[in-house]
Structure prediction request, 194 residues.
Amino acid sequence: MTGRTHDVAAVAAVSLMAFRQPLPPLDAVTLAACAVATFTGGLAPDLDKPGSSLWRRLPGGGVLARVARPAFVGGHRNLSHSLPGGVLFALLARAALLALPEGYFRPVPVWTCFVVAYVSHLVMDTLTEAGVPWLFPFGGTIGFPPMRRWRIKSGGWFEHGVVLPILWGVILATWRAHLPEIIALLRSLGAGAH
Prediction:
């Protein structure tokens, strides 16, 4: 899938997760950090690819990608596209969040957004022709549907013409169904600014 599709899928997944239960109290900084974590988590599995969307968005990303490349065992769609890689990234994200000074934002919602977005990336790539090595280093790639020819070609017409509109529909339907909570959250942010 393309970076744009992973961005939209991450927002859809986090939206579905966030509204499964009552929203916790969120301040503006935590909400902004959740947005950053969502987009970062949705693109993080592709850090194993030097030209990926996340590297391109980071200042000095090209240099950082070349420095970090040896850390990604097996190249693109290996460790970072697996359950063990997901656990590793989740632990690294947790450590990074806990290393920040306390009191500026709530780390648990931010970490949760990162992890949900990360998993959304793996799920979306499972639908592509290449599939995902969920159990790396054990076994090969897993794709859905099982027959490779029925899977989505990354960057192809089906991704852009069918998958993206469905993801946008999920986001809009979720937000519409929870509009009162969203309005209450936005009002609480405005009230906290005064």
Observations:
- The mean pLDDT is 88.
- The helical segments are 3-18, 28-43, 53-57, 61-68, 83-99, 107-126, 157-177, 179-192.
- The two ends are 43 Å apart (CA to CA).
